[in-house]
Amino acid sequence: MAFRIPDLIIKKRNGHELTKEEIEYFIKSVCESNNNSVIQESQLGAMLMAIFFKGLNFNESYYITDSMMKSGARFSFKKHRNLVVDKHSTGGVGDKISLPLAPALAACGLKIPMISGRGLGFTGGTLDKLESIPGFKVSCSKEKIEGLIDEVGCCIVGQTLELNPADRILYATRDITGTVDCIPLIAGSIVSKKAIEDLDALVLDVKVGRAAFMNKLEQAELLADYMIQISRKLGLKAGVFLTRHDNPLGFAIGNQIEIIETVECLHGNISSDLEELVTSYGGYLLQRVDRCETMKEGAQIVLEKLKNGEALVKFRQMLIGQGVSREIADQLCKRNYEAVFAKNAVYVSTIRAQLSGNVKSIHALELGLLCSKLGAGRSKAGDDIFYEVGMKLIKQVGDKVEKNEPWIEVYHNSEHFDSQFAHKIMNSIEIVDYAVTSESSIIKIIDYA
User: Fold this and answer.
1) Count: domains in the chain
2) 96, 174, 288, 363: which is the annotated catalytic residue?
3) Catalytic residue among 96, 111, 193, 305
4) pTM of the model
5) Boundaries of each Pyrimidine nucleoside phosphorylase C-terminal domain copy (predicted)?
6) In the annotation, is 193 catalytic?
7) 268 and 200 assigned to the same domain
8) Cα atoms found within 13 Å of the Cα of residue 129, Cβ hemisphere only
C-alpha cells in the first residue's frame, strides 16, 4: 500500500500513532533516492520535528528500530558464537571509552564489530576522533569488517550504504535539525546499529547529568526502558549502565587529543573515571559470555590487558587493518605524537585558577560547546572539523589548585579567543575551600534478565 509522506507528517504532528506499515514506508523512503517515493530533506526534517514534539510509543519505536535494522545488510558471526559483544553510549564530553575498550576486549579473546557514529550536538564522535589519525578508514565493506573480526578481533566503523543506511541518514539529519535529544529516536538509532551485529551481549551506556542528553534520572530510566524492551523483542541481550556525566571524562576534549589520551590509556596511564567505566563495561561483557564469574573479576582482567600491553597490540593491529600505515601505527603506539599529527593548533591558551582550593566540578557541557565552536565539532552535516583543536585538563575533580595555577590548556586557531572564549572557560570550573571526593560514575545497572 502506498502512502504520502505529507499525510504521515500531519498524522504524527497531530499526535496520532503511526502503523507498522506507515513507519516501514517512511524508512524505505528515507533510504531510496531513485523513485517517486523519495522523501525530500525538508519533509525528513519535518517528520523528525513532529516525532520530537509528539513522541513515539513503544510499538512505534520498535517498528522504526526494526525497519532501520532491516534497511541494509546484517552480519552473521555463528562461528564466533558466545564471543561477539559491543558497547554503545549516548555520548558525552571527552567520552573516548570505546577506543581503549574494543582492543582490550579483543585482547581477552572476544570479537567486537563496533559500528559507531559521528559527533552529535556538543558531543564528540568516535569516528571523528579516529579519522584524526592519518589514513584511518571508518568506511569498510561488510566483507572487510568480517575479515577484521576474524584476524584482529575488533574494528570501529561507521554505517555505510550497505550497513543500516536509514540510521546513517537520520543520524546526520537529527544533528542539524535540533532533534538529537529525542528518546525514541535515540533508542532506535542505538539499538538498530547494534541489532545488525549478531551480538551475544551488549552494554548500553546512558549518561545522566548537565553534560548529557538526559539531564534527569527519570529521562535516562525511560530511555533505558525503551532500549531494554526493544532489545528483548529483537532477541538482543543488552544491559544498561546509567552513568553520571556532569564533568568531562578523562583529561582530553577534542579529536586528536582524545586519541593521544587513548594511547596513554593503552600504556596503562588511565584516569580513575575512565578506568572505572572501561573496566566495568568490559567486566560486564566478559561475565555475560561466561569468561569470568563476576563483573569485578572481569574488570580486573580488562585492566590487566590495558597495563600489560596486550590491548595496545590489538589497537595497533586495528589501525593497520583499517588503513593506517605501519609506520604511523608504530609511531602512534610508541607515543611519538608529533610524528603522527603533522598539524598543530595555531595557539595554545592557558587558563589559570582565580582562587585556591579544591576542584568541585568542571562544567563539561560548557567546555564541549566551546570546543565545538572553536572548530572541534560541526554545526551542520558536512562541516569540516579541525582535528587539532581541543582542550587538556591539567586539574580534575578532587584535585587541589592554587590561585593563578594553570588548570586547562586550550588548543585553537582563533585570533579572538581572549574576547570570545576565555572568560566562559574560566567560569566553567568550581573551586571550593573544603575537601572534595569524587564519586562513582555508575548510578545503576539495569540488566536484560
Assistant:
1) 3
2) 174
3) 193
4) 0.91
5) 358-432
6) yes
7) yes
8) 29
